[in-house]
Amino acid sequence: MANSTSSVDVVQPKQYKASQSTWNTIARSTEFRDLMATKRAFVVPAVVFFVVYYVALPVSVGYAPQFMSIRIGWVNLAYLFALSQFVVAWIIAGLYVKAANAFDRLSKDIVDRAQLSQGGK
Amino acid sequence: MSTSLFMFLLFIAITLGITYWASKRSAGASAYFAAGRQIKGWQNGIAVAGDYMSAASFLGIAGIIAFFGYDGFMYSVGFLVAYLTVLLLIAEPLRNAGKYTMADVLAYRLSPRPVRAMAAVSTLTVSIFYMIAQMVGAGALVALLLKGSGISFGTAVVGVGILMIVYVVFGGMLATTWVQIIKAILLMSGTFLLSILVMAHFHFSLADFFAAIGNVTYHEKGVVVVKDFLQPGLRFKPPYGALDLVSLGLALIFGTAGLPHILVRFYTVPDAKTARNSVVWAMVLIGVFYLLTTFLGFGAATIVGRDYITTHGGTNMSAPLLAQSLAGNIFFAFISAIAFATILAVVAGLTISATTSFAHDFWTNVIHKGVERKPGEEVLVARISAFVVGALSIAIAVALGPTANVAFLVGLAFAVAASANLPVIALSIFWRRFNTAGAVAGLAVGLLASIGLILVSPSLMAIDPPTVVGAARHLIQAKAWFPLENPGLVSIPLGFIGAIVGTLLSNEQTSDDKFNELLVRSNTGLGAEKATAH
Fold it and tell me: Does B2-524 carry CATH code 3.40.50.450?
């Protein structure tokens, strides 16, 4: 299906141009649906997690300042929780970059095929 | 402070040299607005960091931690976590599907003229408010740092304004990018040095450092107080402090992804993968910087102290005064020059995003229906509007004067970005049913809600004692109608509701085809704008 040879506009040297039916064909192809499902499987839980984890910080220090002031070592719970936000943000970013390499492979197939069907770029 | 003046002039000379170099490479719209899309990932990452870490971060956060301890550190956390929204949701689709502005992405599937007009209004509002805040800060700061050299607030504002106009008019995005890169490197080095000096002061013992933070002594209304500065709640107090913290947090993590001067940076790289890498680079730099605000802020609280800072220029001078007390006047001059570079780089970024939106969205696409009447018109219009935007900001900043209460303008910029821009960008990328009426309604409701709520918030409404005079007085002398300083908690949901209700109420047919096209473009990069070849 993705190998559509439907009517295409004049091929330009640099910019890819495609007709509406080409976009529709790609959007409905199994490969593209796979890409979207793979992305969604990572991005949705990641966003939900980081938003909840982050909002927990102002909520806990705002509503339970006494509890969050409990000393742990040289510092306190509030400061440790704040530091953990940096670590968590970096870890999620790292995991995303790793996952995105897989998205790149999937989308490269789609792009290559689309450009091939148009007679190269 | 002739050393400060010398370092300022050195920085100005270097950046003007870059502007001259860039001016010869800024022919054509893609070169002018997007640096030819040839900026490398790490370079753009550093430039994003340089564009983002404003004087509000460097001087403001150091100051708020020095005065209120832990609560100030909450800003540091939010400023970093915000980049996850940019990384996971916005940067790549925007680079794949857009050309120069966020409105490009909206215009794919929605009726271009109303959407672009509204997006341009929102972009210009955010940019100009943010810029005025920076300019007033810059003027006050430069006048203070160069005290004794005869440079007044007005002269300083005009000077900063002229420099920013020169960078943008002659050097375009390329010069702006390099000014931001140099500034970010200077800022990081200064912050590292200052942090090491703070630790040296405590004999490199974290235990001693945190022990000192636990016993910060200062005078309050003539009485000596000792406070644990690691304890939350010194700034955000009951009854509404906790809610305000949550509201601030939401505006920070959702506002960054709607800040026009950050968004335009992703058009300067060759493709979406590079845009992604640049966000990661930016997150490393920004994260390290905001972690180090621990040393800057708490260092100023423990080594310099609230009492001394209050009588020597106020909160914003905390970091430079810390430098002075640790390593003398030369280091004070160095840190001051960094603060100056910081302001210049941010205002240049704001100016170019405002002018890009005016020239590309409003002039070419709204007034002239997407057709340039003659080649180079769009860039010419951008150059002229940079003059106008610059002159306007200078005039307003001079009129407001150095004591104006402008901190709320930065909060307002984040609130508008989070409540107007983000819902509309997100819904247009992710929601098939979304339509023009929804986009216009979302932008309008988000914009009006944030501005309206800030107007009736404690930032602008309060009853001042008669001793507070001039521009420092609150605009409206009455009890605030809305209890929170940050409107995000209410205005962000309102922005989303506006966009959703607007969509559902109109009977406009959304094009399934166009959504398919945007979906494929934004997720695969097929047909994305290419880097211009030399």
Answer: no
